[in-house]
Amino acid sequence: MTAAQRPVPAPDELSAPYWEAAAAHTLVVARCSRCESYVVPPGQACPNCHTSEPMFTFERVSGRGSVRSWTVMRQSFLPGFAEEVPFVLVDVELAEQEELRLIGRLLDGPDAPLRIGAPVKVAFEDVAEGVSVPAFVLGEESA
Predict the structure, then answer these.
(1) Distance (Å, rounded) from C-alpha 5 to C-alpha 20?
(2) What is the C-alpha to C-alpha distance for residues 115 and 105, in angstroms, rounded to an integer?
(3) I want to staple 17 with a disulfide (CB 3.0 to 4.6 A). Which of 58, 100, 101, 132 is the partner?
(4) Kindly report the CA angle at 58 between 94 and 33, in degrees rounded to 5?
(5) Is the distance from CB of 134 to CB of 27 less than 8 angstroms?
(6) ChsH2 C-terminal OB-fold domain spans which residues (predicted)?
(7) CATH architecture of the domain formed by 62-143
């Protein structure tokens, strides 16, 4: 019997540039063309300036940030993660903008020395042929 595969993203027209960049191990974030705020995930309107015509562009970001919160997943709610528990999900505020947040796996594992404010940097998990998902690893303190 083979193990269940992890679910993979199903990009739509709005999110396709994000997932295409992730496949190339590059982190990009949508940016509103009107107010220049970063937005994750992009929607039909900008949550900052409320325009219904945000004309999002995707811009490369540093991938550096700090841990706001985390949880250790000890139970798999999807069969594709059963062999990977326990694992850590971190809520990261990216350095580019206050409240610009991404949630991803911490690849350092459940015994990593985590704390609120811990610096992290983006890494990528290759989950299928041509499909990568942003994740994080603990980084160094910024000078």
Answers:
(1) 21
(2) 15
(3) 58
(4) 100
(5) yes
(6) 60-125
(7) Beta Barrel (2.40)
- Whole-number Å distance between alpha carbons of 92 and 88: 12
**How does pLDDT run across 18-30, given as a tens digit for each residue?**
999 999 999 999 9
Among candidate residues 110, 106, 95, 111, the one with its CA nearest the CA of residue 138:
106
* 59-81 per-position pLDDT tens digit: 999 999 999 999 999 998 888 88
**Residue that is written with structure tokens 């300036």 in the block:** 49
Contact at 8 Å (CB) between 44 and 119? Answer: no
Rounded distance, CA 63 to CA 6, Å?
23
CB 20 within 8 A of CB 14: no
Q: Give the residue extent of every domain in the chain.
A: 14-60, 62-143
